[in-house]
Amino acid sequence: MNATYECTQCGMITENKAHLCNPVALESRADHCGPDASANNMCKEEKARYEYECGNCGRPTEDPGNVCHPTKAH
Questions:
Q1: How many domains does the chain have?
Q2: Which of 12, 29, 31, 49 is deepest in the core (most CB within 10 A)?
């Protein structure tokens, strides 16, 4: 798996840290999802920009390989 990054401001994860305002490297996929995922803190407009999300925790992502249960975002 390629290196992935999380934005500490909005919770978005991506392999391209240039897409994030405050990127922090994630160690493993386990860091991407779960009850502590900051995606729940994102505004609806920001979450709506991304095509995929985790079907378990709702974390949005540009790449479905970055979350444990990828689904198309609504």
A1: 1
A2: 12
- Cβ atoms within 10 Å of 43's Cβ, excluding its own: 8
Instruction: Determine the pLDDT at residue 36.
Output: 56
DSSP assignment of 2-71: --EEEETTT--EES-GGG-SSEEEESSGGGTSSTT-GGGGS-HHHHTT-SEEETTT--EESSGGGSSSEE
Q: What's the mean pLDDT in 51-56?
A: 86
Domain ranges, residue 19? 4-72
Report the alpha-carbon distance of residue 3 to residue 69 in Å, rounded: 18
pLDDT score recorded for residue 31: 58
Structure tokens belonging to residue 26: 């994630």
